[in-house]
Write a structure and sequence with these properties.
- The protein has about 110 residues and is of the alpha+beta class.
- The protein has two helices and seven strands, in the order H-E-E-E-H-E-E-E-E.
- The protein is globular and about 35 Å long.
């Protein structure tokens, strides 16, 4: 849950409106809105390679499609790519193609 707060605070600092899911039980941990762009975000945190299960991907894609947004996976892990906070980096990927997303320029898409 701590990783969700870190990602939410980061997006909020960039001007995104943020809503956290209750209890982290839904398909999206965070719903982020900026202009007319909606991201439905599943946050994964790991000291290694973060894992996401097939049913999590399916549910995330379904909720994003039904609400007109993008299904996004955010990783918080100890690498030097992406936005760094201390010893961790935050990256955003769009499902299905795992394209890296930039939260600063995403609202113009």
């Amino acid at each position: 849950r701590e990783a969700e707060y870190v990602v939410a605070l980061y997006l909020k600092s960039l001007g995104w409106d943020i809503a956290l899911s209750r209890g982290s039980r839904g398909p999206a941990d965070i719903i982020a809105k900026r202009s007319n762009t909606y991201w439905f975000i599943q946050v994964k945190s790991s000291s290694g390679v973060p894992r996401i299960r097939g049913y999590e991907i399916k549910r995330l894609k379904e909720i994003a499609a039904s609400k007109g947004g993008l299904p996004v996976v955010s990783t918080l892990q100890p690498f030097s790519n992406g936005f760094s906070t201390g010893n961790y980096s935050i990256l955003f990927y769009m499902l299905d193609d795992w394209q890296v997303l930039d939260p600063l320029s995403a609202a113009g898409r």
